[in-house]
Amino acid sequence: MVQLLKVHGSQNKFFILDQTALQTKLSQPELVALAKHITEPETGLLDGADGLLVIDDSDHPDTLGSMQVINTDGSIASMCGNGLRTVSRYLSDKFGEDQFKVETMDSDLHVHREADLADNVPTFSVEISPVTFAKETLPFDNLGTDTLINKAVPEFAPDLKFTAISVPNPHLISFVDEETMHSKTLGQLGKMLNDPNPYFPDGVNVSFAQILDHNTLFVRTYERGVGFTNACGTGMSATSLAFCLNHPEMADFDELISVYNPGGMVKTRVHSRDDTFSIDLIGNATFTHKIEIPEADLHANDLEHAQITETDEQPAYLRFVESLKNQLIK
């Protein structure tokens, strides 16, 4: 039998599969097929998820393992901040280390265990980088500019300004008022830019942000390859950087920023060093279920014999979310 985990960061939900625990690792086509099946709300497990996180060995210095992110549609994401926190916790528990690196598609990222956000809410800080603004890295085109920082784009939405940042996942960000936040605009724009379009040929994560107070945001994201999610870690990180750049009177570099989202809240810290940016993403790494399944069934993409055990961590996380409601959120 092999153990999988159902996990979440800010209710951004995933399954974790540790390839190193298998006698025979799943091939890439098998991983994609499993990801599409297990995350499906109707026919998958536990009402599905937003993706599959695949852990494997790494031969890079100071790294405890590698992470691959497979979205619900089978596409590969270059990074996932919420997912990285849960993978970091898994590797920390497995190897007994609280500070190390994790290999991701584009870079080896520093991670470390943090003080718990609340009782029985394990918390990790993960590095979000590299950061670029160049259109080739996102990529985007046909917008008449090589970088898009706090600029109006009438083709996207009237009266809104947009910032495009790669972290390295591509993100398009706009700061909006409460009415726009709750309108249909985000869903319409997210769908438009992730269907075939002349602006973002590979699609893009789209986030709307509402400034609540000094160093305080609410962020909602339409995620590439997924759609609306409870939270997007790299989206909240990129939005925090845009917050510091575009609204310096309301946001501070190197200070903690509280970022509320539909799934809860994380903390971020934006660093600027010699025109190079990085972000710390700090939040929960919750394990909700343990799943035992025969290894042969994983190769066959058969979930019928999965044995599921619930942990006690989700009630603790929900108590944490309930406590947030006592804080001022417009």
Automatic annotation (TrEMBL):
Catalytic activity as recorded in UniProt: (2S,6S)-2,6-diaminopimelate = meso-2,6-diaminopimelate
UniProt name for this protein: Diaminopimelate epimerase
A Gene Ontology molecular function term of the record: diaminopimelate epimerase activity
Localization (cell): Cytoplasm
Top-level enzyme category: isomerase
GO CC field: cytosol
Similarity comment: Belongs to the diaminopimelate epimerase family.
Pathway: Amino-acid biosynthesis; L-lysine biosynthesis via DAP pathway; DL-2,6-diaminopimelate from LL-2,6-diaminopimelate: step 1/1
GO BP field: lysine biosynthetic process via diaminopimelate
Function statement: Catalyzes the stereoinversion of LL-2,6-diaminopimelate (L,L-DAP) to meso-diaminopimelate (meso-DAP), a precursor of L-lysine and an essential component of the bacterial peptidoglycan.
Annotated site residue numbers, Could be important to modulate the pK values of the two catalytic cysteine residues: H171, E223
Pfam families recorded: DAP_epimerase
SUPFAM superfamilies documented for this protein: Diaminopimelate epimerase-like (SSF54506)
Chain residues that bind substrate: N12, N71, G81, N82, N169, N205, E223, R224, G233, T234
Main subcellular location of this protein, as a coarse class: cytoplasm
Keywords from the named record: Amino-acid biosynthesis, Cytoplasm, Isomerase, Lysine biosynthesis
Record: active site: C80, C232
Subunit and partners: Homodimer.
UniProt EC number: 5.1.1.7
